[in-house]
């Protein structure tokens, strides 16, 4: 049974679906209306997650079908079940395989109008080929590197629509699971017999205890890595130990020797090990870990017993009070409602991490002067981090709700920023949705995040005020793909190229894929 279509005009439905797939990290491209044939010169090679390009394609022709490119960059591959009367039935072939090996885990599944079915799986640690060689049996093809599928709500040549199966939509099973080993094993290229694992290099006697513990721990994790995650596990271990190599705590040769032995023991081949180790160690060495401070230094940094310093405590208390005094955006000032609506958000359905209110703006003329209240303005209040609110980000809004407020110091005439961070929340983001999926959108600045959340409310979106803040974010371990969303500003591209690169490098941390998505700057800009 398939899920009913949304009651929306087909053009809007296609564009909305394509944008949501892109925010999941699935690269999309247009196919001809009612056909499986690509509508771009290079087919699936033109696939992208860039919202501007997607809007251009479906804006020019809103009835184009949607193709999703499969492969490593999209993070998925597909089992394609076909039926040909009197010859083969992929459903029956798969059913027989499940009776022999066990049931499949629930995954995103769509039914094709021709009676076929597509089962989507997370990309494994080897290359799945785009093949019709029936390695899995009669009527079962695979769509992997270089392939694609036509996705809901596209039209089939017979007039029917592709549709996600009820209970197996992407939202129902996100993140996509790994296929079981028995389904993937026939698809692997048979590697040459691996040489016997060499004895790892002995540990030198002068290693510090915490360095030795880190090396032993990462080596053990790689040695026992499960199938489907071995390559990523090795890369993560190499990156982490590379940060110690970069600080001079470990030699690169020692790490290569120990992790190579562990990786061979878990079944990776020699060429793959060498390539993964180089990438991970290079990334880690470029970001050497800060030295662990001694107890005296920790005391100077944190105060007695590790507690925050007094100024920090007051700032956190103020942030908590501002948050408590705030109201849901739908009950807040009209200016804040209008500002959210400008970015496509219904104030009644705003994320719970946003509140609104009239907030005082305080400023000093100089560092030695006492603060004075400049004025009271409508403000969008965003909680920073998780748990108890210890920091809030304030965006002071102009009375018309169309832009941030123009604020000047009454004594000096200095133009003041309409954005303020109150409290203490290092390396934390404004979270418009929980990062409980492998793909996370990080919007810079806040308005980009609001726009992305309005476009695809089911996709996790975080936001922060600057590219430097984005580079320092602590990303959950389960996130493997990050979309860094920015305003498209060609005139500023050269000036911010280095900042964008640093943000992408920091978000990747040597273990994630990061894509850049450029959102069109609204008329009038954003202060």
Explained architecture:
The chain is built from 14 helices and 21 strands. The chain is α+β, with helices and mostly antiparallel strands and 527 residues long. The protein folds into four domains: 10-187, no CATH class; 209-285, no CATH class; 310-423, no CATH class; 430-520. The strands form six sheets. Strands 8-3-7-6-10 form a five-stranded antiparallel sheet, covered by helices on one side. Strands 17-19-18-20-21 form a five-stranded mixed sheet, sandwiched between helices. A hairpin with a 6-residue loop joins strand 14 (407-408) and strand 15 (415-416). Helix 5 packs antiparallel against helix 6 (230-246). The longest helix is centred in the middle third of the chain and has 17 residues, at 230-246.
What attributes characterize this protein structure?
single chain; 527 residues; alpha+beta; five-stranded antiparallel beta sheet; five-stranded mixed beta sheet; 31% helix
Number of discrete helical segments: 14
Distance, first to last CA: 49 Å
Tell me the fraction of residues in β-strands, as a range.
Answer: 15-25%
What sort of overall outline do the alpha carbons produce when their principal axes are compared? Answer: globular
Q: What is the number of strand segments?
A: 21
SSE-based structural type? alpha+beta
Radius of gyration: 26 Å
